[in-house]
Design a protein that fits this description.
This protein is an alpha/beta fold. It is built from 16 helices and 17 strands. Helix 9 links the parallel strand 7 and strand 8. The longest helix is centred in the N-terminal third of the chain and has 15 residues. Monomer. Keywords: ATP-binding, Kinase, Magnesium, Nucleotide-binding, Transferase. Its cofactor is Mg(2+).
């Protein structure tokens, strides 16, 4: 992907008094009382908005929240306003819609450095259809476009891709730029040795990532539920562990591919097995080659943690996507937490450690090591698709630098 023009290349002279349509990703989790339970994404959006405030622009923020079908009050962005206002130090105004007369009036009355938050763009079904007329209506509110919503950059929606066709310049925000620098940069031009750690429940959801990374890494470590498909494919007994029977041939072909390309593919040598899938299950450490009948592997074992850590000691760049076990249960979180601690330690020694989205981010935050990593991706699906080597429509739509 070509390098994209950044909001940082626009100065006060380009921005003063200009209406800027900023697509941010404020899709944060809320509890039943509409309290924000994790404001990471809101905090991640602040640098770009602050920059625009500092350049006396008039800022129009657009985001989605959840997957509403039509106007759904529980997916309103209204509960986000107090936290967003607090973080920005300005009073954010919210509209009751994202297009229409009321919105136009609010935009017209925005002062320089003022911030208007549009209501959930997905309240209109045209958003996800990338309907050109809807995109035009959004674009008509502003003079230029900034996309800082990396988490939805893999979707060609009206507010992520459509509006960029009608507003120029169309540039990347600071968060988008940082994500691309790290994720694209690491994969395209890593400091070697380069390792990837891929976990998660199923091989099927990570095939693309594994295949893409096999062409680039020196070491590939696999963990999570997907390992049992690899074990079974090699003739080991897996007890009642999760196995994708229709992916056994694929697992063997990935092992062969690693051999052919000289990639060191490491599977855990031992696992923590449980007698049921529950936080209070009985558990014991067993060798990977023989999980007893009626038992299921729910985490990587102590030997695997040791050999994985030793393999990582020799590396200069590491990308991690997907947990090592069922880390939601404390009893089966040891492997995932050990990897998080190892990456934090290596990061402190100058290794580039990138947490590539999804559950790994939650795991790192659970251990309280988020601020120790080189980069934590805010995108789930977007990070995966980038690691798979796919182009992201929301990025392609922006102006080249």
């Amino acid at each position: 992907m070509a390098t994209k023009k950044s909001v940082g290349s626009l100065k006060e002279a380009d921005l003063k008094g200009k209406k800027v349509f900023v697509r941010v990703d404020l899709n944060v989790p809320l509890d039943d009382n509409f309290n924000i339970t994790d404001d990471t994404r809101i905090r991640a959006a602040v640098p770009t908005i602050n920059y625009l405030i500092g350049c006396s622009a008039k800022i129009i923020l657009a985001s989605h929240l959840g997957r509403p079908k039509g106007v759904t009050p529980k997916y309103s962005l209204k509960p986000l306003v107090p936290r967003l206002s607090e973080l920005l130090g300005v009073e954010v105004i919210i509209a009751n819609d994202c297009i229409g007369e009321e919105v136009e009036k609010l935009v017209a009355s925005l002062p320089e450095g003022g911030v208007l938050l549009l209501e959930n763009v997905r309240f209109h079904k045209e958003e996800e259809k990338n309907d050109p007329e809807f995109a035009k209506k959004l674009a008509s509110l502003a003079d230029l476009y900034v996309n800082d919503a990396f988490g939805t950059a893999h979707r060609a929606h009206a507010s992520t891709e459509g509006v960029a066709q009608y507003l120029k310049p169309a540039v990347a925000g600071f968060l988008m730029q940082k994500e691309l620098d790290y994720l694209v940069g690491a994969v395209a031009n890593p400091k070697k040795p380069f390792a990837a750690i891929v976990g998660g429940a199923k091989v099927s959801t990570k095939i693309g990532v594994i295949e893409s990374l096999l062409a680039k890494v020196d070491i590939l470590l696999l963990g999570g539920g997907m390992i049992f498909t690899f074990y079974k494919a090699q003739g080991h007994s897996v007890g009642s562990s999760l196995v994708e029977e229709d992916r056994l041939d694929l697992a063997l072909s990935l092992i062969e591919k690693a051999k052919a390309t000289g990639v060191s593919l490491l599977l855990p040598t031992d696992v923590v097995a449980a007698d049921k899938f529950a936080p209070d299950a009985n558990s014991k450490v067993v060798p990977a080659s023989g999980i007893p009948d009626g038992w299921m592997g729910l985490d990587i074992g102590p030997d695997a943690i040791k050999s994985f850590s030793e393999a990582l000691d020799a590396t200069k760049t590491i990308i991690w996507n997907g947990p090592m076990g069922v880390f939601e249960y404390d009893k089966f979180a040891t492997g995932t937490e050990a990897i998080a601690k190892k990456l934090a330690e290596l990061s402190g020694n100058g290794v580039t450690a990138i947490i590539g989205g999804g559950d790994s981010v939650a795991a790192v935050e659970k251990v309280g090591l988020a601020d120790k990593m080189s980069h934590i991706s805010t995108g789930g699906g977007a990070s995966l698709e980038l690691l798979e080597g796919k182009s992201l429509p929301g990025v392609l739509a922006l102006d080249d630098a």
